């Protein structure tokens, strides 16, 4: 079994995905 920080990592990855999606949306709007 992997140690417990997996939840934290999942949250960080989700936040990173949201951030990238937001950047994509902003850049597509500003074109």
Which H/E pattern describes the elements? H
N- and C-termini, Cα separation: 47 Å
Structural class: mainly alpha
The major β-sheet equals: none
Q: Determine the mean pLDDT.
A: 87
* Helix content range: over 70%
The fraction of residues assigned to DSSP E strands is under 5%
Number of helices: 1
| Rg result | 14 Å
How many strands in all?
0
Low-pLDDT runs of 5+ residues are none
Overall geometry: rod-shaped
Polypeptide structure, described:
The structure is a single chain. With 31 residues, this protein is mainly α. It is 81% helix and 0% strand. It has 1 helix and no strands. The protein has one helix at residues 6-30. The protein is rod-shaped. The N and C termini lie far apart (47 Å). The mean pLDDT is 87.
